Amino acid sequence: MKIYELAIDDNNATQLEFPLEEERELFLILAKEKVSNFTSVTNDWEEFLLLKKEPKIDVDFYDIEDIGVCIVSQRAYELLLPILDNSVEILKFKSDEEDFFLLNVVLTTDCLDKENSVFTALPSGQIMEFQELFVYSDKINCPIFRIPELPFHLLITDQIMEVYYSNQLKGITLTDEEFVAEEN
Q1: Quick one: pLDDT band at residue 63, thresholds 50, 70, 90?
Q2: Does residue 181 register a pLDDT over 70?
Q3: What global pTM score does this model have?
Q4: Dihedral pair phi/psi, residue 30, rounded to 5°
């Protein structure tokens, strides 16, 4: 099993925006206070309105305002839904063209092999930089997840990449820097 950091390819892709400033502000508060802290937002969720900015080059994976959330197209949602579990909360946005969905990871996966990984961390355990990370693959239940030591990074398994490539989805970029770990 290979593990990658989910990196959204913003080059030449359509950006999403909130046309209503009040909804934008509420979403950013939810993202900062809850999404980035692995907390459910279901009770506070509204179907916020999202619009595509010009040029409209369709992709299937989006970030919004560079805050590190994962928003997917209707097509990506339908393809990923069968492989996701209850550690991912799926929340719908409204749009003028198609629906979009926020993938909110609400549970962390404690799978880092600290003994064999090479990284620099804060006293709290949060990783600041890494050279090589290893994970215990048998502890990974969902193909999109976060680990406690990298709370602002979404990680995906090769299972997501198989769906991505076999269905010609667009919007993820993989480089050597995004490669996070391989089965130990």
Answers
A1: confident
A2: no
A3: 0.88
A4: -60, -40
State the Cα–Cα distance between residues 175 and 94, nearest whole angstrom. 32
Return the domain boundaries, the chain.
Answer: 11-105, 118-183
Q: Angle CA(32)–CA(35)–CA(39) in degrees, nearest 5?
A: 120
Give the pLDDT score at 175. Answer: 67
Q: What angle do CA 39, 49, 79 make, to 5 degrees?
A: 65
| Rounded-to-integer distance, Cα 136 and Cα 116, Å | 11
Q: How far is CA 26 from CA 35, 39, 52, 89, 119, in A?
A: 12, 15, 19, 18, 35
Scan for tokens 């509420």, then name that residue: 26
CA distance 167 to 180: 23
